[in-house]
Amino acid sequence: MTFLSATLDRVKPSPTIAVTTKAAELKAAGRDVIGLGAGEPDFDTPQNIKDAAIAAINAGKTKYTAVDGIPELKQAICAKFARDNGLTYSPAQVSVGTGGKQVLYNAFMATLNASDEVIIPAPYWVSYPDMVLLAGGTPVTVEATLEANFKITAEQLEAAITPKTKWFLFNSPSNPTGAGYSWDELKALTDVLLRHPHVWVMTDDMYEHLAYDDFAFCTPAQVEPQLYDRTLTVNGVSKAYAMTGWRIGYAAGPEALIKAMRKVQSQSTSNPCSVSQWAAVEALNGTQDFLAPNNEIFTRRRDLVVEMLNQAPGIVCPKPEGAFYVYPSIAECIGKTSAGGALIENDEAFATALLEEKGVAVVFGAAFGLSPNFRVSYATSDEALKEACQRIIDFCNALK
Q1: 230: nearest Cα among 203, 200, 195, 194
Q2: What catalytic activity is recorded (predicted)?
């Protein structure tokens, strides 16, 4: 008899965290390593947001709060949804958690039973399937290929729905590909969902404000108002506001679902950090002037990485619409041998050899459910990106 829960056998540790940890360990040991695995901006949290947190501390706002968010933050979230997405919610329809990950997990824990299925387009954020498994459900992946610009079609969604389907989990712009669905592309998916009233929509909009060129962000309940009563719209302040460590995510949806998620949170973490909540109030209510300049920097970095990686033999790197990732294919590298003698039998072997031989840390594609690829986060300096991409080019040039 094992002491640990059998539930843990269904899941694995986060590969992205593992890559970041490995890169940090090698740096600490004196290795010259460039980490392109972390999914967080290198920008500092804007000063007005930090000042709001300091003011909250000085005002003694350091006690327990309501389980799923202070009233001021819920009001700010309602205002944000109305302002940015044309969606009307009341504070009773809002839940605030310790990051978007907890909000998603709470929703699964509150709704999934053993036979329930969750449709997840692949490539997906590494935590999606494992959260479903921890909650007792079954993840059903639908493959979005490079040829389809990493987006699933209405026909694929239709084919994946069964009587056991409870959720369709949607993420645009995407982690790990940066792919963003246009209004028409999303409307095609919501038309399918209208035909299946037992399927709810969970949409992860964490990269909403990281949209480039002519891409215009949209979210399912905005595109199809008839889905409003069965959509949980999830967002947070981590990415666009450079607040990853503050750990504030939020969601809005039907009041009964929010109440059930509150029950889960009340018996797990209880309230998110009080100081972080006050900082998030300022993030949502305060100036948004820094978003456009930051996006200009990300656009420049994206173009730099895409151009350089497409110079590497065996790599095909599409240009994404948003987020701060690229997801190049290495199909033509498979089966070759590195200068250090490593056989590139899959994308994990590619990433391992790249780290060991060139000191560049990326996340292998199998972690995201689609191979052979790897993910690069370009949320770091231009200098580091240029050096890392040149090392990747050199690595690929040496493959035999």
Answers
A1: 200
A2: L-aspartate + 2-oxoglutarate = oxaloacetate + L-glutamate
